[in-house]
Structures are given as C-alpha cells and as structure tokens.
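FW: tagging you since you asked about this chain on Friday. Here's the raw sequence from the shared folder, copied in full. Didn't touch anything.
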Amino acid sequence: MADGNTGSSDTSARQDPLVGRRLASYEVLARVARGGMGVVYRARHVYIDKIVALKVLDPELSKRDELIERFRTEAQSLARVEH
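HL: got it, structure written out here
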C-alpha cells in the first residue's frame, strides 16, 4: 500500500504518536501507510503474539456515522480473508 504523503513519510512515521504505544490488545510497532480514511500500522496482538495490520480511522472522519459504518464494513470484509 502506498503512502499518500510521499517524500516526508519517514519523518512523519518516526514522529507518529501511536508508534510504541498500546491500543487495546495491540502494540503499535510502526506506521506503514496513510490513506484516505486513516493510517495503517504494523502491530502485534499482545495475547496471541501475532503480527497484524492495524488500521486506525482518522479522528475527523470518526465524527461521521456513514464513514464509521464504511470503516466497520471494510474491517469485517478483511477479517473474512484468510492468508
């Protein structure tokens, strides 16, 4: 997945406040990409020790119910995909 902010992605990824923190059951390891709806991170599920892609919805978009539903639908679709 490409980063929408080309050129300064390394700097902004290093300064990302979520990297190194824990969100629910996930330890955020690195920022992978930024897209139209949010940011994708490389994360580790702390209980099952599994590396995952974790997408976080942009806070501004989280104020709009239709975008929250779209985000939820996308997550459910991706959860059904087996690798």
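FW: Residues 1-8 have pLDDT under 50 and may be disordered.
HL: agreed, and Helices lie at 9-14, 65-79.
FW: great, closing this out.
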